[in-house]
Amino acid sequence: MKVIGWSILVFGILSFTGAAIASHSVFGPCFFIALGAFLIHKGNEKNS
Prior knowledge:
mainly alpha; 2 helices; about 85% helix; elongated
């Protein structure tokens, strides 16, 4: 889960940056950032 979480997080950050520069809605990229962070958190929780 951590690997998928990191890739979604990086994709969300890049999308957020692009949307903010182009003055588009940043709601979608925020969703991907939150989803990536959630998956990383769940992956770390499983290891503990």
